Amino acid sequence: MKIYSLHARQALPIKRDQAWEFLSDPANLKVITPDHMGFKIHSGAERSMYAGQIIQYKVSPFPGFTTKWVTEITHVEKGSYFVDEQRFGPYKLWHHKHFIHQIDEGMEMEDLIHYKLPLGWLGQLAHPILVKKQLKQIFSYREAKLKELFGSVPGKETQLKFDSF
Q1: Which residues contact 116 (CB under 8 A, 6 or more apart)?
Q2: How far apart are alpha carbons 71 and 83 in whole angstroms?
Q3: How many domains does the chain have?
Q4: What's the domain range around 150?
């Protein structure tokens, strides 16, 4: 029964308010998700993030496979962080912490995700072939999209690290 983790960091040359305004708007999740995934929010994106908010959407993580995904925003500290947890969807566990930190050059976005796959050993076999590969692709797309929207900080490379326990 493995639990996987993904830790990502990306520096952006923007102010805290601008970073928070973008990240706390659920509609912007579509902006930073690859188009081929067919991401569509069905409800819950009408307001900025708040604790208890339920967001329902559909996504196609792999060709020919579309799934409903329901997340709850469980914690919010305005301007600093929020946490989303899957209530229904493709993972057995999905716990995603989003932080923003002040750095000399602007802001650093930090994501810490803990997730568990369904299907026992079959899920574990699928992790390196499908799931990890897809998450890398999603975060690479997000990195490029955020650079396009806000620019980048010279000398601050985006970090992406996977682990399991």
Answers
A1: 1, 2, 3, 4, 91, 92, 93, 123
A2: 10
A3: 1
A4: 4-164
Q: Which of 32, 36, 13 is nearest to 23 (CA)?
A: 32
Give the chain's mean pLDDT. 94
**CATH number of the domain enclosing 42:** 3.30.530.20
pLDDT interval class at 123 (50, 70, 90): confident
Tell me which residue has tokens 């590969």.
Answer: 133
Contact partners, residue 155, CB within 8 Å, separation at least 6? none
Per-residue pLDDT reduced to its tens digit, 100-113:
999 999 999 999 99
Asked if residue 47 lies in contact with residue 55, where contact means CB atoms within 8 angstroms, the answer is no
Single pTM value for the model = 0.93
pLDDT at 150: 96
